[in-house]
Specification:
- With 311 residues, the chain is α/β, with parallel strands linked by helices.
- The protein has two domains: 86 residues, 3-Layer(aba) Sandwich (Rossmann fold); 144 residues, Rossmann fold (3-Layer(aba) Sandwich).
- Helix content is 42%, strand content 14%.
- It has a six-stranded parallel sheet with strand order 1-11-8-7-5-6. The chain has a three-stranded parallel sheet with strand order 3-2-4, with helices on both faces. A two-stranded antiparallel sheet has the order 9-10.
- It is globular.
- The structure holds NADPH dihydro-nicotinamide-adenine-dinucleotide phosphate.
């Protein structure tokens, strides 16, 4: 049996189309949402992510601006920039791309972002709102996981969910969202005893670990829904063989690029699971779509207009 593939690219484009329609009607009322992205220093991966975010803004019609303080920027300079963005009315969302240059106090800078403009949902105020089920901004990747489940018609209420990973940006907020949606949730991490045994109880298994192909078939209950948040660059030939031997398309990519993108879930799990997100093309595309959603949501909440119906 082969699992149903949950197509994140398709779901993300549906969300982007809905957001674009909202932006159009808001812009017609003179309320075009705006996002400011802060990209400090030079980090090639961050530059690629930020390019994707700015491009998404253009596609859905959100106003965007990019601020690029130098590698030598100090904590005080970044705080001054964030304060200025907090004050500007046409800016609804502020995204500080991590990591910041090493001497900078990242926590202090993130804490300075106005919670009403915190489109990453990392501010303790928004974390508190999520855990107490108050309106607020929800971190993008976890919100994307919930959209995949909802839009794929997968029942969450009453189900046993296991989340592997407890980071502040993925594992914990996913677990909180699943709890709020009435799943019975177990959070696992590197100190969990008998991880495969715990995972085998899951009707919904979310992997947010950062280890290529760690979740093998013996972690998965037959028929379970498996959501793979992991994004791991595989460059080692033996590792590649363990994951993708016999996959002609992957072998071609690996030969030409010297690397391939793998999730935390081993491809063999598709033979056991009932539904599964692919990597690439699963959770990844949802992250930017939900950033666009959050920017519009922030604009509506801050400007006191009606809130979007979802998330
Ligand atoms: P972190 O490194 O912050 O957290 C990893 C978590 O996995 C930790 O809680 C850690 O446990 C746990 N873990 C690590 N090794 C094991 C193990 N052997 N057994 C059980 N648990 C383990 O990672 P992130 O949460 O930031 O990211 C997780 C993955 O998701 C990464 O691959 C990342 O690239 C990807 N990601 C994808 C996004 C997307 O848009 N699709 C967005 C963000 C992240 P402990 O706490 O005990 O150390």
């Amino acid at each position: 049996m082969s699992a149903r593939i949950l197509d994140g690219t398709k779901i993300a484009s549906e969300i982007r189309a809905e957001v674009a329609a909202e932006v159009k009607s808001m812009s017609a009322e003179g309320l075009r949402p705006g996002l400011a992205v802060v990209l400090a220093g030079h980090n090639p991966a961050s530059e690629i992510y930020v390019r994707g975010k700015v491009k998404a803004c253009e596609e859905v019609g959100v106003y965007s601006e990019k601020h690029t303080p130098p590698q030598t920027a100090t904590t005080d300079e970044l705080l001054a920039l964030v304060e200025d963005l907090n004050r500007r009315d046409e800016i609804d969302g502020i995204l500080v791309q991590l990591p910041l240059p090493s001497p900078v106090d990242s926590k202090k800078v993130l804490l300075a972002v106005d919670p009403a403009k915190d489109v990453d949902g990392f501010h303790p105020m928004n974390v508190g709102s999520l855990s107490t089920q108050r309106p607020g901004l929800v971190p993008c990747t976890p919100a994307g996981v919930m959209e995949i489940l909802k839009r794929s018609g997968i029942e969450v209420a009453g189900q046993d969910a296991v989340v592997v990973g407890r980071s502040d940006i993925v594992g914990k907020p996913v677990a909180m969202l699943l709890t709020n949606a009435n799943a019975t949730v177990t959070i696992c991490h590197s100190k969990t005893h008998d991880l495969p045994g715990v995972c085998r109880h899951a009707d919904i298994l979310v992997a947010a670990i950062g280890r290529a192909g760690m979740i093998t078939h013996d972690y998965v209950k037959p028929g379970a829904t498996v959501i793979d948040v992991g994004m791991n660059k595989v460059t080692d030939a033996a590792e590649f063989q363990r994951l993708f031997a016999g996959n002609a398309r992957r072998e071609e990519t690996f030969r030409s690029k010297g690397s391939t993108l793998a999730g935390d879930v081993h491809p063999e799990v598709a033979n056991v699971a009932g539904a599964i997100t692919p990597v690439p093309g699963g959770v990844g595309p949802l992250t930017i779509a939900m950033l666009m959603f959050n920017t519009v949501k922030a604009a509506k909440m801050r400007r006191g207009t009606r809130e979007l119906s979802r998330a």
